[in-house]
Write a structure and sequence with these properties.
The complex is a heterodimer of chains A (about 900) and B (about 120).
Chain A: H1 3-28, H2 33-53, H3 56-73, H4 81-104, H5 113-123, E1 163-165, E2 178-180, H6 195-219, H7 228-249, E3 250-252, H8 254-257, H9 260-271, E4 274-280, E5 285-287, H10 288-309, H11 313-318, E6 324-334, E7 337-344, H12 351-361, H13 366-370, H14 374-378, H15 402-411, E8 415-421, E9 425-433, E10 438-446, E11 449-454, E12 458-466, E13 484-488, E14 491-496, E15 499-505, H16 506-509, E16 528-536, E17 539-545, E18 547-555, E19 569-574, E20 580-584, H17 586-593, E21 622-628, E22 634-638, E23 644-649, E24 653-656, E25 659-664, E26 667-673, E27 684-692, E28 701-707, E29 709-716, E30 720-722, E31 729-735, E32 738-743, H18 745-752, H19 759-764, E33 770-774, H20 778-790, E34 794-798, H21 801-809, E35 816-820, H22 828-837, E36 846-850, H23 855-864, E37 868-871, H24 875-897
Parallel strand pairs in A: 4-6, 11-20, 12-13, 15-17, 22-32, 26-28, 33-34, 33-35, 35-36, 36-37
Antiparallel strand pairs in A: 1-2, 3-5, 6-7, 7-9, 8-9, 10-11, 10-18, 12-16, 13-14, 14-15, 16-17, 19-20, 21-22, 21-29, 23-27, 24-25, 25-26, 27-28, 30-31, 31-32
Helix pairs in contact in A: 1-2, 1-4, 2-3, 3-4, 3-5, 4-5, 6-7, 9-10, 10-15
Chain B: E1 7-11, H1 15-27, E2 31-35, H2 38-47, E3 52-55, H3 64-75, E4 82-86, H4 92-99, E5 104-107, H5 112-121
Parallel strand pairs in B: 1-2, 1-3, 3-4, 4-5
Classes of the chains: A alpha/beta (about 900), B alpha/beta (about 120).
Chain lengths: ~900, ~120
C-alpha cells in the first residue's frame, strides 16, 4: 500500500478518535470554543488531506460536517445535541469508509446523499431529519461494519466513546495509535511488543554505541583506511538506531488519561455531583513503563478527588461556588522529572476531621497533633489505613487508600505531596523520575569531571566578571546590562539584569579538588566565571562551572544504589564518546547548597535566604529592593528611592539623645530600626540609606532604615493593593510571585525626623513653588508627593485628569504640573492637550511621568504639549526637570514682562 | 562551486500534506524541513531561517496567522516569502494572511503544477 495512504489512515484514525471524544465534551459545554475549534480543525484536516489523495466520498462527507461546525464556530448555530448527533453520524460514516479503505486500498462505492442532506439541513438551521444510525456502506467488505454510534441526547447521559487503547508501538512515531470503537482499525499496522524486548534492545544499542565509539577511536589513527567509509555509515546508522529505539519507549501521558473522562462521567452520575475534568499537558512524554505504573494511582486519585474533594451541587451553591466542580490534571516536565498535578476546587482537606480520625486510629497523640502544622496533619491521609470519608462509598472505599497510592509512586522513585486550602480545594503533586528517558542535556566540566545538566532546567549561560562589592552609588544607578558576581553577607550572588541570583560553585559543592592547582580553573579569562543559570521550580540559581561543552541527547540511566542517597544526581548517562558521566539534578543541588528558593530555606539564618527570582520579561516594571525584617515576611521598597545599601559594624553605632546614630560620610546619620528595636547582638547591621539631596545645598539629610537582611533586587510589575493595616506599610503587592509589603517611605523618614518634609521650606524661608500632581495610582501619588514636598514644593495631588481640569476651572494657581500618562478615562496626552487648549494653565510647564520612556514616547509627549518627559522612579530626573522647567518658566515670564 | 539548495519549511498539522509537499518540493531541488504547528515552525525559523515557508492556517498550538504575525514582527516584513495554504471554505483568511505579510496563497489541495507556478511567481524557481 502506498505509504502516503498509510499515513493518511493512521492520521485520520487518530483524528477521528480525538474528534469523538471532543464532541462528547462539546455536548456538555456547548460554549467551549477551544473544543469546538479542535473538532473543526480535525475535520478540516481530514477533509483537506482527502483532497490530496483523491478520495471524493470521504471529502464530501467531511466537507458537509465541516460546514456544520463552521456555522457553529461563526456563531450562526449552537451545538445542540441534535447537531452533535449529526456530526457524530458523519464521523461514523467516515470511519466506516476509512476501515474499508484500509482493508481494500480503495475508497468503497456508496451513497451518502441522505447523510449529506441531513448535514446540510442542519447547517442551514433547519430541523434535522430523523437522526438514525447510517446503514453500513453497501459495498461488500471483509471487515465487519462498525457498530452504530450511540445517539447522544441530552435527557439520557451519553454513553461515552470507549477508547480502546492499543498498547502498541508505532515504528516511526512515538504517538500512540488510538483505535476508535471496535473497528478493524488501520492503526493495527502497529504491533504489540513487550517492554522487556524494548528494554533488551536498548541495552544492546547502548553496547553498540560503545563499540562504535571504540572503532572510531581506532580508525582515527589510520589515514585512508578502507574502513573509513563503512565505519562512517555504521556510525550514522548506529545513531539513528539508538534514537529510534529510545523513541519507542516514550509515550504521551495522555494515554494514561484517556479513560479518565469516562470514569469522571460515571463518577458524577454515581455521586450526583457535577464534575468537569480538565487535562493539561497530555502530550508530555514519559517512559511507557512508568506510564503503566502510574495509571492505577492516577485513576484512584481522580476518584478520590471526585468523591472526597468535591462537594455536592447543593453544598457548592451554599458555599457560593458554581455547581460544577472541577478536577484539573496537569502534566509537565521539570528537571528530569515529570510532574503531575491533580487539582480539585472542592472543600479542601478538613483538618479537624483528620485530627479526629488520627486520634481514633491511634496514629498520633493529641499533644503530637497540637505541635503539628495543618499541612503535616493533612499528610496523615498518606498513612496506612486512613480514610476520611464518613461512609465508605462504592467509589473510593475499596480498601485502597492514599497510602497505597503513595507506596506505588515511591516504588518508582517518585514523590507525592499535597496542598489544601479549606473551601478552595486540594492539589496533589506527583513527581516521577523519567528513568531511561531521552533528555537533552548540557555537558559541562567542573574540576576534571564532566557532568550533564538537563537542558530543560538550563535558562541561560552567563559569563560574569568577579566584582566584589558594587561601588556605593550603584544601588540607585544600576548597570542594567552588565552581569557581575558580588557578595552579600559572604554569599556569592550574580547580579544579572537587575536580579540577584544565588551562586554555587559546582566543584565546591561536589567537593572536587582541581588536580591542576592554581590558577583556579573557572577563573579563566580576566577573572571571568562561566555560570549556568538553572531553573529550580519557580526559582533560578547560578552554577559556576569550568567549561561548557555542547548539548547532547542523552539516555538517562538510574543512579547506582550506592549513590542514590546523593540527591544532587538524577542519573547517569553514556556520552557519545563512551564515557559515563553523572546527570545533575538542579533541585537536589539547590537543596544541597541551601539556596533553595523562597519558602524552603527559612530555617537557615547563617546565610541569607536569597529569594531567588521568578522569571518575567516585560516593560513597565519597577526595580524593587526586597528585604526582611522582624518576621519572615518580605518587605519591598522601590529601588529608585534608596540611595545606598550599607552594612554597619556594631561598633560604629552610637546613641545620641536616646536614638541610634552612626557616622556616615563625615556626618551623623540617624538610624531607624524598622522592627522598632535595634538588635545589638548582630555584628553587622543592614541599612537602607535614604538621602534627600539637592545639588548645591548643604542641608541635605539622610536617614538609615535598619532591616534584618537585604534579600534581593527584582523587577516586577507593581500592582499595589492599598491596605492601611499597619503604620509604615503602604500596602501589599505581588512581587516575584509572593505577597510583599511595600513600605511607606515617607512614614519612615518622619520617624527619623518629624519635620523631614517641612524643614527645608522653613529652614530656607524660600518661596515654595506650587506643583499639581495628576496620578491615578495611589501608590505613585504617595511616593511622589513626599519626594516633591521634601524638596521644597507645595504639592497638590489629584487622582484623575477631570479633577485637575476642575481645579483649573476654579482658578487654582500652580507653577508646574506633573502628570501620569497612563490613566483611565482621560490619559496624559489628552489631558495636556486640554491644558494647552484653553484656560489659565496654557503656558504652565507640564511634565509627563511615565513607566515607558522610549524616544517614540518622548516625541509623542512633546507633540501633545508636554514640556518634558521623565520616567517613573527617576526621582532625580523629575526634580531636575522641575527645576529646569520652573527656571524656564521664570525666564519666560521675565521675557513676557519685558 | 555548486550553490546550496534552496530550503522550504512546510508547516502543516497533517503528516500527509507535509509529505505531499515534501515530495513535490524535493522534486524541484528544495531542501525541505517540516513543522506540525506554528510554534514548532517559529522555533525552526529561529534555529535556521528557511528560504521559503509553505504555511497551513488551521493548526493546533499556534495557527498560521499567528505564526505569520510572529515571524514578521520578529524577522522583518519581507523575508522569507510565505505561501499561505487554504481551502475554499476559508477565503476570508487569505485577506488576513496577505495583510500580515504572506506573499502568495495556494488553494488546497495543491499539486505539483500549482506549487511550481506559485513558487516561480515569487521568484524561488
Amino acid at each position: 500500500m502506498d505509504d502516503l495512504l498509510q499515513d493518511f489512515l493512521t492520521e485520520t484514525t487518530e483524528s477521528l478518535a480525538e474528534a469523538d471524544l471532543a464532541l462528547v465534551k462539546l455536548e456538555q459545554e456547548p460554549g467551549d470554543t477551544a473544543t469546538l475549534s479542535l473538532i473543526f480543525r480535525l475535520v478540516h484536516t481530514i477533509k483537506g488531506t482527502c483532497g490530496f489523495l483523491g478520495l471524493p466520498r470521504l471529502e464530501k462527507v467531511a466537507h458537509s460536517a465541516e460546514n456544520v461546525l463552521g456555522r457553529v464556530r461563526d456563531g450562526a448555530l449552537t451545538a445542540t445535541p441534535d447537531l452533535i448527533t449529526g456530526v457524530l453520524l458523519a464521523l461514523d460514516r467516515i470511519k466506516a469508509i476509512v476501515a474499508e479503505l484500509a482493508a481494500s486500498g480503495h475508497e468503497p462505492a456508496g451513497d451518502d446523499t441522505a447523510l449529506i442532506a441531513n448535514l446540510d439541513a442542519i447547517s442551514e438551521g433547519k430541523q434535522p431529519a430523523e437522526a438514525k444510525p447510517a446503514p453500513p456502506a453497501p459495498a461488500p467488505s471483509p471487515s465487519p461494519p462498525p457498530p452504530p454510534k450511540p445517539v447522544l441526547v441530552s435527557s439520557a447521559p451519553p454513553e461515552p466513546v470507549v477508547l480502546v487503547e492499543a498498547p502498541v508501538v508505532a515504528p516511526a512515531e512515538a504517538a500512540p495509535a488510538e483505535a476508535g470503537g471496535s473497528d478493524a482499525s488501520p492503526a493495527s499496522q502497529t504491533i504489540r511488543v513487550g517492554v522487556d524486548v524494548l528494554e533488551n534492545l536498548m541495552t544492546l544499542v547502548s553496547e553498540l554505541v560503545l563499540t562504535r565509539n571504540q572503532l572510531l577511536q581506532l580508525a582515527r589513527h589510520q589515514d585512508n583506511s578502507a574502513f573509513t567509509g563503512p565505519l562512517q555509515r555504521l556510525s550514522h546508522i548506529t545513531s539513528d538506531l539508538q534514537e529510534g529505539v529510545m523513541k519507542t519507549r516514550m509515550q504521551p501521558i495522555g494515554i494514561a488519561w484517556n479513560k479518565l473522562p469516562r470514569i469522571v462521567r460515571d463518577l458524577s452520575r454515581e455521586l450526583g455531583k457535577k464534575i468537569d475534568l480538565v487535562m493539561i499537558g497530555a502530550e508530555t512524554e514519559l517512559d511507557r513503563q512508568v506510564l503503566e505504573l502510574i495509571k492505577d494511582p492516577l485513576t484512584h486519585m481522580i476518584r478520590n478527588s471526585g468523591d472526597h474533594g468535591l462537594e455536592t451541587p447543593a453544598e457548592r451553591r451554599a458555599a457560593g461556588k458554581s455547581e460544577t466542580g472541577r478536577i484539573t490534571l496537569n502534566a509537565f516536565h521539570e528537571g528530569g522529572h515529570i510532574v503531575i498535578e491533580i487539582n480539585d476546587d472542592g472543600r479542601g482537606l478538613p483538618v479537624d476531621r483528620i485530627k479526629a480520625k488520627v486520634l481514633s486510629k491511634g496514629l498520633a497523640t493529641e499533644a503530637e497533633l497540637a505541635a503539628m502544622s495543618d499541612e503535616a496533619i493533612q499528610r496523615f491521609i498518606f498513612r496506612a489505613g486512613f480514610s476520611t470519608a464518613a461512609a465508605i462509598t462504592a467509589v473510593s472505599g475499596r480498601g485502597v487508600g492514599m497510602d497505597v497510592v503513595k507506596t506505588n509512586i515511591e516504588r518508582i522513585g517518585g514523590t507525592i505531596d499535597l496542598k489544601s486550602k479549606p473551601g478552595e480545594g486540594t492539589i496533589f503533586t506527583i513527581k516521577i523520575p523519567l528513568t531511561l528517558a531521552i533528555v537533552s542535556a548540557l555537558i559541562v566540566q567542573a574540576a576534571e569531571e564532566r557532568f550533564a545538566i538537563p537542558q530543560i532546567s538550563v535558562v541561560e549561560l552567563v559569563r560574569a566578571r568577579e566584582g566584589g562589592t558594587p561601588p556605593p552609588n550603584d544601588a540607585t544607578n544600576p548597570d542594567s546590562t552588565g552581569s557581575r558576581v558580588e557578595r552579600i553577607n559572604g554569599v556569592p550572588v550574580l547580579r544579572l539584569r537587575e536580579r540577584l541570583l544565588p551562586l554555587v560553585g559546582l566543584d565546591e559543592l561536589l567537593q572536587l579538588s582541581p588536580i591542576a592547582a592554581p590558577p583556579k580553573p573557572h577563573a579563566n579569562v580576566e577573572n571571568s566565571l562561566t555560570i549556568i543559570v538553572v531553573q529550580v521550580g519557580p526559582n533560578q540559581m547560578g552554577l559556576i562551572v569550568d567549561r561548557v561543552f555542547d548539548t547532547e541527547e542523552i539516555v538517562v540511566k538510574p543512579v547506582a544504589p550506592v549513590l542514590r542517597h546523593i540527591s544532587m544526581f538524577s542519573g547517569n548517562t553514556i556520552l557519545g564518546d563512551g564515557s559515563v558521566i553523572m546527570i545533575l539534578d538542579p533541585s537536589g543541588i539547590a537543596r544541597a547548597s541551601g539556596v533553595a528558593g523562597s519558602g524552603e530555606s527559612r530555617t537557615s539564618n547563617a546565610q541569607p535566604a536569597l529569594a531567588v527570582v521568578g522569571t518575567s520579561s516585560e516593560t513597565d516594571r519597577t526595580a524593587m529592593l526586597l528585604f526582611r525584617t522582624g518576621t519572615d515576611d518580605i518587605n519591598a521598597v522601590p529601588l529608585g528611592l534608596v540611595a545606598r545599601l550599607e552594612n554597619f559594624e556594631r561598633s560604629r553605632i552610637e546613641v545620641a539623645a536616646g536614638n541610634p546614630v552612626t557616622q556616615y560620610r563625615g556626618r551623623l546619620m540617624r538610624l531607624v530600626p524598622m522592627s522598632g528595636l535595634l538588635d545589638l547582638s548582630k555584628e553587622l547591621q543592614s541599612v537602607l540609606v535614604f538621602t534627600d539631596t539637592q545639588q548645591g545645598q548643604s542641608g541635605d539629610r539622610r536617614m538609615g532604615l535598619v532591616v534584618d537582611e537585604i534579600v534581593d533586587v527584582v523587577e516586577d510589575y507593581l500592582n499595589i493593593e492599598l491596605s492601611g493595616a499597619r503604620e509604615g506599610i503602604l500596602g501589599t503587592a505581588i512581587i516575584a510571585g509572593r505577597a510583599t509589603d511595600v513600605i511607606d517611605t515617607s512614614y519612615w523618614l518622619t520617624q527619623a525626623d518629624p519635620n523631614w518634609f517641612d524643614m527645608k521650606a522653613e529652614g530656607t524661608g524660600q518661596h515654595r513653588p506650587r506643583v499639581l500632581v495628576v496620578e491615578d495610582s495611589d501608590f505613585f501619588r504617595q511616593m511622589i508627593v513626599p519626594v516633591l514636598q521634601s524638596n521644597g514644593y507645595d504639592v497638590t495631588a489629584v487622582p484623575d485628569a477631570a479633577r485637575a481640569l476642575a481645579l483649573r476651572d476654579v482658578g487654582a494657581p500652580f507653577e508646574a504640573i506633573v502628570s501620569d500618562i497612563e490613566m483611565p478615562d482621560m490619559d496624559g496626552f489628552d489631558f495636556v492637550k486640554a491644558v494647552r487648549a484653553a484656560g489659565s494653565w496654557q503656558h504652565l510647564p507640564v511634565i509627563a511621568l511615565s513607566g515607558r520612556v522610549s524616544a517614540q514616547d518622548v516625541n509623542r509627549g512633546r507633540d501633545a504639549g508636554f514640556t518634558d518627559y521623565v520616567g517613573k522612579f527617576a526621582k532625580d530626573g523629575l526634580l531636575t526637570s522641575l527645576r529646569q522647567c520652573l527656571a524656564l518658566g521664570k525666564a519666560e515670564a521675565h521675557r513676557l514682562v519685558a | 562551486m555548486q550553490t546550496p539548495p534552496r530550503s522550504c519549511l512546510v508547516v502543516d498539522d497533517s503528516r500527509v500534506v507535509r509529505k505531499v509537499a515534501r515530495r513535490i518540493l524535493e522534486g524541484q531541488g528544495f531542501a525541505v524541513r517540516e513543522a506540525e504547528d506554528g510554534q514548532v515552525a517559529l522555533d525552526a525559523c529561529r534555529d535556521r531561517m528557511p528560504d521559503s515557508v509553505l504555511l497551513d492556517w488551521n493548526m493546533p498550538v499556534m495557527n498560521g496567522i499567528e505564526f505569520l504575525k510572529a515571524l514578521r514582527s520578529e524577522f522583518g516584513p519581507n523575508q522569507p516569502p510565505v505561501m499561505f495554504c487554504t481551502t475554499e471554505n476559508d477565503i476570508s483568511f487569505i485577506e488576513q494572511a496577505i495583510e500580515h505579510g504572506a506573499q502568495e496563497f495556494i488553494m488546497k489541495p495543491f499539486d505539483e503544477d500549482i506549487l511550481v507556478s506559485k513558487f516561480t511567481q515569487v521568484g524561488l524557481l
